[in-house]
Design a protein that fits this description.
Layout: H1 5-40, H2 45-70, H3 76-98, H4 105-129, H5 134-158, H6 169-172, H7 180-199, H8 201-209, H9 211-216, H10 221-238, H11 244-259, H12 266-290, H13 296-314, H14 320-352, E1 359-360, H15 361-364, H16 372-384, E2 388-391, E3 394-397, H17 399-422, H18 427-435, H19 443-453, H20 468-478
Antiparallel strand pairs: 1-3, 2-3
Helix pairs in contact: 2-7, 2-10, 2-11, 2-12, 3-4, 3-5, 3-10, 3-11, 4-5, 4-10, 7-10, 10-11, 11-12, 11-13, 12-13, 14-16, 14-17, 17-18, 17-19
């Protein structure tokens, strides 16, 4: 039975709709690819202007941000940027009253600069004339100035002749509206800040790391501090057009914090921070140009945050992965040192008590708070590294393992003797205290301990704990004496060659 025309109509309509959807998707994909090509090859003049301005701003903010971060004034840029809003609104009102162009960017930035500097001065005065801490001063200035700016913005919106359309871009940023004059202003301000930081690099470095030493050497601390704060003000002002006053602090803080995970050298840290700032600015502005509905300031900040997450995870100096691997390596080294020293002490004690000198896994378990699995792992790893050899349940030193175990035991006992005779720590507690420090003893410290404590530096100091445990174990095996858990080790350590220094 053939279908009627009425039954075929919905099927034809659905096919037509599907075809139109495919055509629309294909046209959209082609359009995106065309825009991407134009973006990659910088074919549009406005794109070149925006990317150039964003790159210059990101690089200068990264450099200045390093010094503010090390100076522990990372939030100063946040307070300054919020303090610029009253200046913008006052300039707008003044231009409207006197008949000037209300949207003149130089006029608005002049007002922002004045209130920004006023905010910095207020912070410094509150910190110097009162007992308030710097974070409290920052919070006061940030909230008061920003509140005043919001109030003035509301007044502008209610004026019959005033129209505040466009002022919101200073709050959230609008990189896409950047013109040549804006990019030139950003470039001039960025080059000025970069030149100042380069010429005063040594002085700013000393200021950030040791302010008191810099003052004692005759450096003008107050002037250097004002120059640094002036750089922060300049970056905050020129960054209003790109990322807005709310997010400009991200350009000052995030690249600098990201570079901290990669190096300890200030020069390298500054270059890395500048690179991250430039990269985030260019990529954020490019994505915003490719997808116009995405705000450029937010995209720049998001790419800064992405760089920070990558640096925090993979940074070669302070990254989480490197720190975890370093901590694992240290823990394994400490476990190996404890194992070798314990083996040596067990062998030494059995030899002095006239017991069989073969060492088994069961002999080592009571010596420390090891579980069987933990001890088996340490034994397997030590055998792979050729510190010991293992035959079934018996373990023996290799040549290099015995030498290392004797060295570790010697350093441990030297530190025990020092704590007993010079730090007044009881012999019953000295072993735990020595465990906390013995793994970081330098050769120079060991040499000083030898000169201080023992006459013959070639001999191994005796243990200050005695051999009660092994005596009890041997007697209990022979059935002569029942072990007494309350028995305490001798209070006087057998150190005939130790100098008490008294």
């Amino acid at each position: 039975m053939s279908a009627t025309p009425a039954e075929c109509a919905p099927s034809l309509e659905s096919q037509s709709f599907a075809f139109e959807s495919l055509v629309a998707v294909s046209e959209q994909t082609t359009n995106v690819w065309s825009q991407l090509q134009r973006l990659l090859f910088l074919q549009d003049y406005n794109t070149r202007v925006v990317l150039f301005g964003a790159a210059m701003l990101g690089g200068a903010a990264g450099v200045v941000g390093v010094f503010t971060l090390l100076r522990k004034r990372a939030l100063m840029g946040d307070a300054i940027s919020h303090a610029t809003l009253p200046g913008i609104t006052i300039s707008f009102l003044a231009a409207s009253i006197w008949g000037f162009d209300e949207k003149s960017l130089p006029l608005l930035l002049v007002g922002a600069t004045v209130t920004g500097l006023l905010g910095v001065s207020t912070i410094l005065l509150l910190r110097g004339l009162t007992k308030l801490k710097e974070d409290t001063s920052l919070s006061i200035v940030l909230s008061v100035f920003f509140g005043a700016g919001i109030a003035l913005l509301g007044i502008i919106q209610q004026m019959p002749k005033g129209h505040a359309a466009g002022l919101e871009s200073f709050i959230l940023g609008k990189t896409a509206s950047m013109v040549v004059s804006d990019a030139q202003l950003i470039a001039a301000a960025s080059i000025t800040c970069l030149a100042g930081c380069s010429l005063l690099f040594k002085e700013l470095k000393l200021l950030c790391f040791d302010e008191n030493f810099a003052g004692s050497r005759g450096y003008p601390i107050v002037k250097l501090d004002l120059i640094l704060m002036a750089s922060v003000v300049v970056i905050s002002i020129v960054g209003l057009q790109a990322v807005g006053l709310i997010m400009v602090v991200a350009l000052l803080v995030t690249p600098a914090a990201s570079s901290r995970f990669w190096t300890d050298d200030l020069t390298k840290m500054t270059l890395i921070s500048a690179g991250i700032g430039m990269f985030s600015g260019v990529i954020g502005a490019a994505v915003s140009a490719l997808y116009p509905r995405l705000p450029s300031g937010a995209m720049i900040v998001l790419f800064c945050a992405t760089c920070f997450m990558i640096s925090m995870t993979l940074g070669v100096k302070r990254g989480l992965l490197v720190r975890s691997l370093r901590r694992l390596k240290i823990n394994r080294s400490i476990g190996r040192q404890h194992f070798l020293r314990t083996m040596y002490e067990v062998m030494e004690q059995k030899q002095q008590l006239g017991l069989e000198q073969s060492i088994t896994i069961n002999d080592l378990l009571p010596a420390r708070s090891w579980s069987k699995n933990r001890l088996a792992t340490i034994v397997s790893r030590s055998a792979r590294e050729e510190w010991i050899t293992r035959i079934h349940q018996e373990v023996r030193f290799t040549k290099k393992g015995r030498f290392e175990a004797e060295r570790l035991t010697r350093e441990h006992r030297l530190w025990e003797l020092f704590l007993i005779h010079h730090a007044d720590i009881a012999p019953t507690r000295v072993d735990r205290e020595a465990d906390h420090i013995e793994h970081v003893l330098e050769p120079e410290i060991v040499a000083e301990l030898e000169l201080l404590l023992i006459e013959d530096q070639r001999e191994l100091p005796q243990s200050p704990h005695g051999f009660d445990h092994w005596k009890q174990t041997d007697d209990s095996k022979n059935g002569n004496q029942k072990p007494n858990g309350n028995q305490k080790p001798s209070a006087e350590p057998p150190v005939s060659r130790a100098r008490t220094g008294k």
